[in-house]
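Hi support team,

I submitted a single chain yesterday and got back a structure, but I'm not sure I'm reading the token output correctly. Could someone confirm the output below corresponds to the sequence I sent? I've pasted both exactly as they appear in my results page.

Thanks,
R.
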Amino acid sequence: MSEIKLCPFCGKRGILGQTILNYYVVRCQNEECNMIVQQVIGTTRDEAIKTWNTRQIEDALRSERDEWRRDAERLAEIIGEKPIDEIFSLFHQDIADKAEKALEAHRALVKKEGK
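Hi R., thanks for writing in. Yes, this is the structure output for that exact sequence:
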């Protein structure tokens, strides 16, 4: 059986119970919590716990964080062991080179049109 997460609203422990109709219920143990009126019901213990433990926003943020980490790891592989200053220098040099080529193309166009 999975461990029951804390209540997402008050941080108190979630507790598992069973109804007289043999459904399983997870609710917050804190009677002053707004979550106390909301219960997660499942036909099995594991289903009720899994539903209670689902945190859609947290799960989405974790997924996004993991994606950023994978991207950072791929970038680190591409960059290698170069110091960050060197990386920025290469990046800026690349931009400067592209700007210089664009300027040269513009000057050639102006010169051509001027004839």
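A quick pointer for reading it: The radius of gyration is 29 Å. Let us know if anything else looks off.

Best,
Support desk
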